[in-house]
Amino acid sequence: MTIEKILLGFSPKAENILPALKKVNAGFGYIDEEKAEKIAAYFSVPISQLYETATFYDLINTKKQPALTIKVCFSTHCALKDAKKIIVEIENVLHVKLGDENNPKFRLGKMSCVGRCGEGPVVMVNNKVYERVTVVMVRGMLEEYL
Amino acid sequence: MENTKILTINWGKINPLKIGDYLAVGGYLALKKFVSEMKPDEAIEEIVASKLSGRGGAGYATGEKLKMVAESESHEKYFICNLDESEPGTYKDRMIADNNPQLLLEGIIIAALSIGAHKAYIYINGNYEKQKETLETARAQAHKKNFLGAGILGSAYDLDVEIFSGAGAYICGEETALINSIEGKRGEPRLRPPFPTEAGLFGKPTAVNNAETIANIPWIILNGGKKYAKIGASCSPGMKLYILGGSVKKPGVVEAPTGVTIRELVDDFGGGVTPGRDFWFAQIGGASGRLVLEKELDMPLTFSRDCQIPLGSGSILVVDKMANISDLILSWTEFFRRESCGKCVPCREGTFRLHEIALRLQDGEISERDKVAIKDILWTLESTTFCPLGRFAATAMRDAVEKLNLLDK
């Protein structure tokens, strides 16, 4: 799938900018400058405006992502339910630090509420959501990806 | 009246992916009534009479909002259903989409037609992928039955519903930020006025309503606004979804009238506090909500401006005495720091500094200087930010300082 093919699936209207960004992001993992320029040209908006939009949203990346991205929900309900212990366990299993953006293989971060508060603590691994995560579960959950 | 159920009555009883199930329990009768017996302004009058108010948290009178857009002379208007739900602890709108998407669609169709819109959008949280699929299925089925599209049920009404998926930004629940987001821009709030009802999406009059609000509309059309106005608290009547969470025996979404007290919700609906735990405080309305102590639990929850505890999104988080308060404070401050859009300095900087102090509080190193700074920052967030997000960021922290005596330790 080329970026041109993805873009041709959208009519060049403003309301399709965000859906197109999401689709390009899903196809390539992130939106670099070259792709941002192509999208801006397609929708006839300045590259500055397009990049403003692309950098604003959590679900759109403007940098290359590592193979494994883990996000732990730390919003109210999950924070009160062991989210911190789960983060420590993930750090120990993968030998990563929370928030370290220089690790080429793994990235561990916190995320905002995804509306599964009844099923917390919630962890997202490469966009797959795990519910009712416990410290004991962490290793098994991550082994699928290693 | 106490046993009336409007929103959840068919949850678990009907298959959300089969429109036939919804029709069998009286679905789309309200739309049929609207199309065959009512004029658009009569429908709006019913909604005005119902005194239905916005369930997203602000509590603005829904009927008035629809009226403003309906009365505008522009022939291009939009209706937007706000399903961007991202307040921590809140998942009621997701449950509506999961359990009864057709009810939501019916409400959207009636509201959109009554204001004279030919296009409606559902702005759905980017993380709600499954719900987006459910709604797409529901929309396709409604289209097939001619509840949507051109010449709805043989009338001259036309309506297209588009499902627009967000991309992960709390601020996009704010209506002007949401509009910017659909327009392909950063989800930053706009200066008001002009209000969206005058100049909203693509500069056209736009009504933005929360999903739960809209789900009440079919009932109001069928049973009359006056009857709805008799349910619950007289200042902001109706049924409301409450989300019980934290140290409560039976967590989950429950439907109860407005005016219910927090104690009733926790004890009668939630089965009480988790056994073995002692109630400390409750947070009402998500991370941006106020804290409530034991002695305040008998206060009725309403959307009225006089209500000391704003109902907000309807989330009730019960916190017991074993909870680590510094984790909760870190959670609040981190959330608002991450979600502050960056447009205005007081919010961008204020949320950042508050989070820094929360980190020091975690390490137990909060200094006298921090204690003074907290008060300055809270005042700044409450009084000077561009949109309500700054005020939200300060609410819980202010209560932690004043009600839980956070700084006295």
Care to give the gist of this entry?
The complex is a heterodimer of chains A (146) and B (409). In chain A, α3 crosses α4 (47-56).
Q: Ends of chain B: how far apart?
A: 48 Å
- Which CATH architecture of the largest domain in chain A? 3-Layer(aba) Sandwich
User: How does the helix and strand content of chain B classify structurally?
Assistant: alpha/beta
Taken from the alpha-carbon principal axes, the silhouette of chain A is elongated
**What is the tally of beta strands of chain A?**
4
Shape of chain B: globular
The order of strands across the largest sheet of chain A is 2-1-3-4
Tell me the number of structural domains of chain A: 2
Q: Termini of chain A, distance in Å?
A: 27 Å
Biggest interface pair, counts: A-B, 33 and 52 residues
CATH topology of the largest domain in chain B: Rossmann fold
CATH topology of the largest domain in chain A, what is it called?
Answer: Glutaredoxin
Number of helices of chain B: 16
